[in-house]
């Protein structure tokens, strides 16, 4: 009898110990580990869910595609369970997530925080059917995107003619083409090599990414459209979790994930991106690079040149069953509303 009781006690203790084993989430992204995205967003998020779950939820972060594959494959890695959580660009898989492309249209957002909050609302209203197999935890846009190149200062549309310019997604490539340059699509990790070898003359990027990739050390000219005008462009990102992994969590751990995802998490990522711009820009200033501001009069020319990108997109997604016009109107209104609240 004593042996039986001892065996039951041992088994109970073993089960309790097993039940308390932490769940380790594999978190993958394409940036280096020193990037703002990991240090200012993913690491604090992982620390927060660990604390709120009494360390039952933990992260193992895999930067720089350490789980293999290419940046364009990250979203599929999340769907397939190769990674439990990924941070990537929906636009790396062109046409797969048409609802969220609206956030990448030219002259839509003024800042990353407001644009990111708007992006989450656009997802809730229009985008949920596009993301089967993953549970989006956040959508964010980066801070104002600018023009950078090694050929000449850019202050008007005609200055872009003939330049080979890298852009990250389908819509940003269309924007570059509408401005008269030759678009060259490639994931971010390939850009420094392409710039150093002259494969591209320049690129469109926000400030934060540039020193992370040491691009300020190989670029001569930077051209900016400054507030109060909307930014030339932005790019949409998502932090997404494998749906089956989320579904497998016990209710109390699902609550932790839910409490650390959504509109507020999205907005916090945007704030981090907005805050990153001035110190990143300063590094290019300290190298003596040339800066040019695209004035209000010339901005109108950029807006006219890129208007057809928006018009074409509305027609394209409307043909697929989306209300493209309403999506653009909502994205603009939400971005403006949240920018004004800051």
Automatic annotation (TrEMBL):
Record-linked Gene3D superfamilies: Bacterial extracellular solute-binding protein, family 7 (3.40.190.170)
Species of origin reads: Melaminivora alkalimesophila
Q: Which Pfam families match?
A: DctP (PF03480)
The alphabetized UniProt keywords are: Signal
Q: Which InterPro entries match?
A: DctP_fam (IPR018389), TRAP_DctP_sf (IPR038404)
Which Gene Ontology terms describe the biological processes this protein takes part in? transmembrane transport
For this entry, the protein name equals TRAP-type C4-dicarboxylate transport system substrate-binding protein
Q: Which CDD domains match?
A: PBP2_TRAP_Dctp3_4 (cd13665)
Q: Where is the signal peptide?
A: 1-19
């Amino acid at each position: 009898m004593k042996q039986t009781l001892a065996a039951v006690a041992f088994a109970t203790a073993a089960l309790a110990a097993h039940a308390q084993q932490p769940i380790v989430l594999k978190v993958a992204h394409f940036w280096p580990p020193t990037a703002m995205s990991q240090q200012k967003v993913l690491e604090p998020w992982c620390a927060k869910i660990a604390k709120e779950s009494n360390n039952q939820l933990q992260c193992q972060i895999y930067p720089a595609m350490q789980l293999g594959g290419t940046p364009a494959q990250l979203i599929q890695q999340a769907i397939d369970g190769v990674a439990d959580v990924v941070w990537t660009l929906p636009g790396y898989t062109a046409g797969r997530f048409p609802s969220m492309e609206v956030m990448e249209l030219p002259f839509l957002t003024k800042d990353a925080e407001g644009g990111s909050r708007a992006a989450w609302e656009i997802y809730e209203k229009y985008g949920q059917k596009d993301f089967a197999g993953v549970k989006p935890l956040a959508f964010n846009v980066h801070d104002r995107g600018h023009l950078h190149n090694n050929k000449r200062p850019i202050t008007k549309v005609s200055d872009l003619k003939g330049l080979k310019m890298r852009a990250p997604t389908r819509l940003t490539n269309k924007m570059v083409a509408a401005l008269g340059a030759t678009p060259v699509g490639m994931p971010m990790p390939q850009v420094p090599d392409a710039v150093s070898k002259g494969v591209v003359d320049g690129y469109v990027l926000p400030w934060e990414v540039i020193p992370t990739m040491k691009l300020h050390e190989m670029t001569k000219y930077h051209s900016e459209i400054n507030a109060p005008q909307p930014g030339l462009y932005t790019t949409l990102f998502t932090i997404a979790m494998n749906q089956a992994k989320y579904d497998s969590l016990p209710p109390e751990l699902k609550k932790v994930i839910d409490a650390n995802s959504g509109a507020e998490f999205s907005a916090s990522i945007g704030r981090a991106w907005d805050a990153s711009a001035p110190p990143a820009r300063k590094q290019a200033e300290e190298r003596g690079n040339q800066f040019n501001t695209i004035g209000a009069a010339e901005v109108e020319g950029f807006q006219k040149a890129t208007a057809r990108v928006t018009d074409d997109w509305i027609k394209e997604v409307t043909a697929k069953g989306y209300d493209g016009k309403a999506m653009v109107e909502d994205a603009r209104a939400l971005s403006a509303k949240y920018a004004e609240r800051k």
